[in-house]
Structures are given as C-alpha cells and as structure tokens.
C-alpha cells in the first residue's frame, strides 16, 4: 500500500525505447511548497489528487485544484506552488523519448495550453502504483517493459480524458496533431497496402483537406511522403545481404518487384541490385582503408 509521499527514479537501460520513464512519485505538499522558476530538459506531468495551488508559465498563471493537472515542457521556464491554506497532494511523472511530443499533441496539450482536466483519480493512482511496483523489480528482465507499459497507461488515461473534454479544439488548433498522426500511421503501415483514402477515413477528414494540411506542414503530399518513406526504408534493407530484392520489395509494401525496381531506379538513378553492389563496394573500401591504417 503506497502512502501519500514516495518517489522513484528509474533510468531505463535500453537506448531503443522511444518513450521512457525518468521518475515519478506522489507527495502531500506542505503549505507554500514551491519549485522554480526554472526549466527541465524533459517532459513532466503533475496530477492533483486534492487541495490546490498555482502553476505559472512565462505568459500565464493558473489556479488549479483536484482533478486537474499540468504539463511542463522541456526548456520552458515555469514554476508552481502549493496553496497556503489548502496545499495540494499531487503525483508527478517525468518522461522523455521520440514519442513524447506526439503523446502531448494527441492529448491536445501544448506550450500555450499546458493545463488539463481528468476526473479519473482512482485510475491515475493505479497507474502510479504500477510504476512503483515495476521499479522494485530490480533484477527482472521485464522491468523496462513494465515501466514503459505503466507510463503508456498513464498517458492514455490523460489522452482519452482530455480528448473527450476538448474535442472541439481538434478542428481549430489541432493541425499539428493530424500531421503527427499521418506520420505515425505511415511509419506503422508503410509495409502494407496503404491507401490515402484509408488514412483520411482514419482521421475523419476528406482526402483533399488532409492532403492540403499535410503539404502545408511538410512540403510534400501524403502520397509523396509514403513513396519516399518506402524507398528510403528499402535502401536500409538493401544493405542486408540476407534479403533478396523481392523480399525487400515486399517488406516496403511493393508486391510487384518490377514496379519496385522501376520506381527505385527512377528515384535514385540505379537499380536496387546496383545500389546494393555499390554499398558493398563502399564497405570493402572502408575495410581496406582500416586495414591499411593498422599497418602503420
């Protein structure tokens, strides 16, 4: 059973996790307890279980109470303080990784709008408890995975709650969210038969509007992005001698090897086989130079 005051610090041993927990905890703050103004180099969410306090950014001051929370963004000056008469009890979760910004955007949070409401105190407490329990598995091979799973559950609760409360904002200030989801969808589905119509339906947008929105942000259409993403992935796979050209083509969503070879040559000026041989020659040259260097 966890008390009102505890904290964990847990740095993942894996460098491949794109979303990892840094530290978390729960505290019953004394009156006036404060932090900052200062900045952090990672994301940190505070969720208020009871009491109240003030959260300040450069441009705004928020008075917050139970069922609310705030997100501190990396490299952004902020501060917070517990109320003198009714100090808050809160939990905090600090995290970082390649997917951290995507998670924040999907929760409709931003530097300009870092505050949220989530009336699921029991669920939040359960997620924090899972983080604590996972942190105690010092010698378990599953420790990093369990920590990440608990973090993802915590973020999912906030995403779902905040999204249902501010659904109307998706169409006013959520363009970056749509772009992030298009990028994520492509990265997940590029190896399958990926139709732009399906992507538009997934987002609840018309194909024309989605294409316009994406091109404005990225500079190319979704079709062009998918095309480039697939061929760049193919270049990576061609460096693996164990894969045939046909297997590479299938792995990046081309079921027609001839079409794949034609598109590859049109883009890079050489066939997949020529590209592979060229890469092998570069590696042989590099090895030769290394061997020559060791003779000196």
UniProtKB/TrEMBL annotation:
<dbReference type="Pfam" id="PF12833">
    <property type="entry name" value="HTH_18"/>
</dbReference>
<keyword id="KW-0804">Transcription</keyword>
<keyword id="KW-0238">DNA-binding</keyword>
<feature type="domain" description="HTH araC/xylS-type">
    <location>
        <begin position="180"/>
        <end position="278"/>
    </location>
</feature>
<dbReference type="Pfam" id="PF02311">
    <property type="entry name" value="AraC_binding"/>
</dbReference>
<dbReference type="InterPro" id="IPR020449">
    <property type="entry name" value="Tscrpt_reg_AraC-type_HTH"/>
</dbReference>
<protein>
    <submittedName>
        <fullName>AraC-like DNA-binding protein</fullName>
    </submittedName>
</protein>
<dbReference type="InterPro" id="IPR018060">
    <property type="entry name" value="HTH_AraC"/>
</dbReference>
<dbReference type="InterPro" id="IPR018062">
    <property type="entry name" value="HTH_AraC-typ_CS"/>
</dbReference>
<dbReference type="InterPro" id="IPR003313">
    <property type="entry name" value="AraC-bd"/>
</dbReference>
<dbReference type="InterPro" id="IPR037923">
    <property type="entry name" value="HTH-like"/>
</dbReference>
<dbReference type="GO" id="GO:0003700">
    <property type="term" value="F:DNA-binding transcription factor activity"/>
</dbReference>
<keyword id="KW-0805">Transcription regulation</keyword>
<dbReference type="GO" id="GO:0043565">
    <property type="term" value="F:sequence-specific DNA binding"/>
</dbReference>
<dbReference type="InterPro" id="IPR009057">
    <property type="entry name" value="Homeodomain-like_sf"/>
</dbReference>
């Amino acid at each position: 059973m966890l008390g009102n005051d505890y904290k964990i610090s847990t740095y993942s041993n894996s460098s491949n996790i794109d979303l990892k927990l840094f530290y978390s905890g729960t505290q019953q703050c004394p009156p006036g307890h404060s932090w900052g103004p200062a900045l952090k180099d990672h994301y940190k969410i505070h969720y208020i279980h009871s009491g109240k306090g003030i959260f300040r950014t450069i441009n705004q001051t928020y008075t917050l109470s139970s069922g609310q929370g705030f997100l501190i963004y990396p490299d952004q000056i902020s501060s917070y303080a517990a109320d003198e008469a009714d100090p808050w009890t809160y939990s905090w979760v600090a995290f970082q990784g390649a997917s951290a910004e995507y998670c924040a955007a999907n929760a409709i949070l931003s530097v300009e709008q870092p505050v949220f409401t989530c009336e699921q105190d029991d669920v939040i407490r359960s997620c924090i408890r899972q983080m604590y329990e996972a942190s105690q598995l010092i010698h378990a091979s599953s420790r990093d995975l369990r920590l990440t799973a608990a973090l993802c559950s915590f973020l999912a609760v906030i995403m779902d709650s905040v999204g249902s409360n501010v659904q109307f904002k998706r169409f006013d200030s959520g363009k970056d969210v749509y772009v992030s989801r298009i990028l994520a969808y492509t990265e997940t589905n590029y190896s399958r038969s990926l139709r732009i119509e399906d992507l538009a339906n997934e987002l609840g947008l018309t194909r024309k509007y989605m294409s316009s929105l994406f091109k404005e942000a990225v500079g190319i259409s979704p079709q062009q992005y998918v095309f480039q993403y697939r061929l760049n992935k193919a270049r990576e796979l061609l460096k693996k001698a164990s894969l045939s050209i046909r297997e590479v083509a299938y792995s990046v969503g081309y079921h027609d090897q001839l079409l794949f070879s034609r598109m590859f040559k049109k883009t890079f000026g050489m066939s997949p086989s020529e590209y592979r041989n060229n890469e092998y020659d570069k590696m042989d040259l590099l090895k030769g130079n290394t061997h020559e260097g060791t003779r000196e």
